[in-house]
Amino acid sequence: xxxxxxxxxxxxxxxxxxxxxxxxxxxxxxxxxxxxxxxxxxxxxxxxxxxxxxxxxxxxxxxxxxxxxxxxxxxxxxxxxxxxxxxxxxxxxxxxxxxxxxxxxxxxxx
Length: 110
Prior knowledge:
This protein has a 3-stranded antiparallel β-sheet. The chain is about 25% helix and about 35% strand. The longest helix has 11 residues, at about 50-60. It has about 110 residues and is α+β, with helices and mostly antiparallel strands. The chain is globular and about 40 Å long. The chain has helices spanning about 15-20, 30-35, 50-60; strands at about 1-10, 65-75, 80-100.
């Protein structure tokens, strides 16, 4: 079957998170692009899995990843990216849709 995981918060969003670290995306869509490319606002000791690793895992599972933050939205499927604008939302929302299959997570996350 198909599985859907949605994680959302009502925090400052990706753009403001980058700006507080002196990184200057041009808008919310660009902030999503940076996050999907692996640019973190955290130092090495604090790093989590991040949207870059999540994107790679979703691709391995042939799923769909949707990210919304501020006025930006991104849909990633089969490593194809579709970016657009949407109505403003607080925080970040990540939606993952996949068919579960056995994978070696450590081959993706380093």
